[in-house]
Amino acid sequence: MIPAVTTTRHHLLLTLLLVVCASWTYARSWDVAVAIGNEIEYFARNGTSMDIAGIDEAVELAGITYDDTTRTMYLSDVSKKKEGKNVSTFSNVSIFLLPEANFVSTPLLKKENRMHVDGMVFDTSSRTLFWVDPVKDIIAKMHIPRESKPGDPVVLHNLTGNSPRGIALDVCNSRIYWTNSNKSHPSIEYSNLDGSDRTVVINRTLIKSFYEPVAVAIDHAEQKLYWIDDAEGVPFNIGRSNLDGSQRELLLQQNHQQPIYLAVDNESIYWSDPVSSTVWAMPKNTKAEDNLIKFVSYDDPRKHHLSPAGIVTRDNVRRIDCATIKKEPHLSVLPVQPVPSYLITEKPDVTINSSKNCLNDGYLNKTDNTCRCKEGFTGSFCEISFSLSCHNYCLYGTCTINQRGLPECKCTGTFSGARCERDVCNDYCLHDGECSVRDGKPFCSCKYSKGTRCEELNDFAEICASSRVGLPNNMTSCKCTLSDSFHNGMLLPIFGALSGLFLVIVAILSYYVNKLRRRPRIKRHYVVGKGVTPLTSRPDNPCEITIENCCNMNICETPCFEPKLRNDVSRSNSKKKEEKNFLLDNMDDNSC
């Protein structure tokens, strides 16, 4: 017989175990919720449908968000009034509240003229609901306390001309992100919850092929920003980056879809496609062999007459440990390599029967009715191009697609790295050494130093013995003796040039001196006394006449001749008279 105390203890333990199991089952009763028509369908992560809840007053649910603290779903209805003979598909409520405990909906905001509540997010810390209205071009918010009535809606951003559509909440940084789908100037922006610090994260300046972003999501665990870009033409792109827009990656380029809502969890990315009435999924950290997954398909018209819209993942809106997230380093030193487009493994509904179905010059293999694609293209119809993977991938080099379909960079100059983002010669060679790349590694050619990085300066004698011009930055002068190489290399040509110039100057001066010396210079003094009247005109009073260079004159102008006799200065007066008379006689003989 079992004692009563033991029985009671076992009963309490069993009861506690059942409560814990029930709580855990209730806490993880669903992982992904999808809005379609006027219903919300709940799924496990493997795609198994867990439950369906309907809102009778709703017609066309669109935006969806979840409050994990009160286990409440918020949904928006975007239906328009369309009346027929017997039916009227119109909801006069824009926002509903749906508790998970009883699935009884409560209207929160009535529909006004031209109101169109699209994407929604809920901030649990401030108890504030945010939404975008692409018709009025606004972002609005409303305070929803736990027990009292909700507040009035307030316009947070007036975005006239910007076409806001998708919205996401960054819990740890208290920001909201939204997409601007205006095709002339598309962008992804964020602001604080109070509307301050509005900042553009991504636009066409950063991504040239950026065309029409329609959805955005925040991965809190890895601090990443995800977006869907409805690219111009057939394809669409799914990309991601850091929260500030850096380290951008192209995760997927796909055709024949029109995704409008986006969500992420710890493992996967989800998006809804109204073209195929399907919710698609793919691994968040993708690999080349990964494929797209049909998470849920609503292509049966008997089940739903509308397409899937808003998606919410429970892991990404649960209680976030922001303190732990901010301590963990999420940004890697090098950008993550982008992953090429992923292929749908399911066979297409259209049977290939001619080569015109193979796009981009693909070849039809009639044996198995499949396309053989040219290099750079893939897909069932060769519709997917790998060229976008190379767009802005290699920073300083050329990009090619390898055999695995991944982009590879061939770097130019002194750059290296997976994306040629690092200059290996930057500040590598010291003391003015010249850097080059050999076998992918930096190599220094030193001038007046030595070592692998030119880190060891030579002594002064070696530096001064060099014939190179220039000194190190930390040397201003050089005192040393001239070497033989310096004599032979510099002094001899200078000395020879100066000697030749000196000889030319001496020759020129000698020529002019010799020429001047040949010219006669005659200087005579004649004293003419009174009472003598020569043939030439002379003054009446005695005077002294000086004659220079008169050889070209005639005798009538100047008595230019040498007397036959010249006596000393101390000769007598009689002798002087005789000489004067002799001079006058000679002048008479040479009359003009």
Main sheet specs: 4 strands, antiparallel
Shape: elongated
Stretches where pLDDT is under 50 for at least 5 consecutive residues are 1-27, 331-356, 479-484, 560-567
**Proportion of residues in helical segments:** 10-25%
Coarse structural class: alpha+beta
Number of strands: 40
Percent of residues in beta strands: 25-35%
Read across the widest sheet, the strand sequence of neighbours is: 3-2-1-26
Number of helices: 5
Mean pLDDT: 75
State the distance separating the first and last CA atoms: 186 Å
Radius of gyration (Å): 52 Å
Gist?
The chain is 15% helix and 33% strand. By secondary structure, it is α+β, with helices and mostly antiparallel strands.
Characterize the structure shown.
Helices cover 15% and strands 33% of the residues. With 592 residues, the chain is an alpha+beta fold. It has a four-stranded antiparallel beta sheet, with no helix packed on it. The protein has a four-stranded antiparallel beta sheet with strand order 4-5-8-9, with no helix packed on it. A four-stranded antiparallel beta sheet has the order 10-11-12-13, with no helix packed on it. The longest helix is centred in the last third of the chain and has 34 residues, at 484-517. The termini are far apart.
